[in-house]
Amino acid sequence: MYIALIGDIINSKDYKNRNKIQDLLRKKINSLNDKYKKDLKSPITITLGDEFQCLIKTVEVCFLIIDELSLYMSLNDVELRFGIGIGTISTDIDENISIGADGPAYWNARFAIEVIHKEHDHRNTSTYLKIDDKPQEQFLNSVIRLQDLIRNNWTYSQKEFVYKAITIFGYNEIIPKNLVEAMRFSSSQVSNRLASTSIRQYVTSRVELSKQLSLEDN
Q1: I want to staple 85 with a disulfide (CB 3.0 to 4.6 A). Which of 4, 8, 99, 217 is the partner?
Q2: pLDDT over 70 (residue 115)
Q3: Whole-angstrom Cα distance, residue 89 to residue 42?
Q4: 146 Cβ partners below 8 Å, 6+ apart?
Q5: Which domains does the chain have, with CATH numbers?
Q6: Residue 54 — pLDDT band, cuts 50, 70, 90?
Q7: 81 neighbors 73 (Cβ within 8 angstroms)
Q8: CB 173 within 8 A of CB 199
Q9: What is the CB neighbour count within 10 angstroms for residue 65?
Q10: Angle CA(55)–CA(46)–CA(115) in degrees, nearest 5?
Q11: Residue 29's pLDDT band (boundaries 50, 70, 90)?
Q12: Residue 216: predicted pLDDT
């Protein structure tokens, strides 16, 4: 069982600075491939200019990649959408580039991103998950929808804060003292941002959903 992730830039053809945006996306993808190398069965690969895909070993890393990518690009005024597919791969897997592999995991991811194309709740929802024959799929996606709503409605400064926190600490326990030291914020600034972003609740829900999906796959 693998987690296939397909993502793309929303309304990419509308951007006048498309080359610059693609360059930003490429650099961030390269950084994530280095950071999560051991967790990727096949690296994040740009396939169609504005679309990218990969095979990931764990659900938690899938969510981390989505958070880092979406927040980074959003800070540059670019919005992404994602389709997550969980399933098997029926072909050989190239561990150097995510092109050529095929199977239910990718079919599910493709189905999922097409759902987001059509049903995005006025851009509040940017992620959909597809698993074969799982009656809990609707419930799991309702949780993802709420997580998206939280993330997509952060202000610019809130996104900066959460992006830095997740980039540095991942989904580890959010300890105010560590944030103060790492971000050079005052204690009151950290306290205010923890409250306004609900980052602790967001991270906890990401971790718990990852655990649930891991149990579902076993």
Answers
A1: 4
A2: yes
A3: 12
A4: 205
A5: 2-217 (3.30.70.270)
A6: very high
A7: no
A8: no
A9: 24
A10: 70
A11: very high
A12: 59
Token digits for 201? 């609740």
Q: How confident is the model at residue 8 (pLDDT cuts 50, 70, 90)?
A: very high
Eight-class DSSP state of 6: E
Burial degree of 111 (CB within 10 A; 0-12, 13-18, 19+): middle
Judge whether 97 and 81 are in contact, CB under 8 Å: no
Cα angle 139, 143, 149 (rounded to 5 degrees) comes to 140
Q: Given 3-state DSSP classes, what are the helix, strand and coil percentages for the chain, each rounded to the nearest 5?
A: 55, 15, 30
5: nearest Cα among 35, 32, 34: 32
Total residue length of the chain = 218
Q: Amino acid identity of 87?
A: G
* DSSP-derived secondary structure for 28-55: HHHHHHHHTGGGEEEEEEE-SSSEEEEE
Q: Residue 78 is which amino acid?
A: V
Q: What is the mean pLDDT of residues 56-80?
A: 96
